[in-house]
Amino acid sequence: QVHLVESGGGLVQPGGSLRLSCAASGFSFSNAFMHWVRQAPGKGLEWVSGIGFDGRPQNYADSVKGRFTISRDNAKNTLYLQMINLKPEDTAQYYCATDKSGTGRGQGTQVTVSS
Fold this sequence. Notes:
Layout: E1 3-7, E2 10-12, E3 18-25, E4 34-39, E5 45-51, E6 58-60, E7 68-73, E8 78-83, E9 92-97, E10 109-113
Parallel strand pairs: 2-10
Antiparallel strand pairs: 1-3, 3-8, 4-5, 4-9, 5-6, 7-8, 9-10
């Protein structure tokens, strides 16, 4: 049974940085393509980034390309999302998931970008 726990969110000023983590259990993480998705207030779920089981390929939505970096540590069953140059429009609940639709996502972690 897929179990994903996101952490690392918070309140940050525009231009700031955050690193999100996702602890995975209950499935073969090292053999899974993993994703980050987000949901802004009043909006639908948006795919953000995906990573292959061995760290390649790495894919990004146009809105975050060049600012976000996805990575993983298969020894720790953990997925990461490094976010820099954050913008107010990045404000959302962030989830890790096993597909682009958000399947298996956890409770999420809130990222708020505001001055």
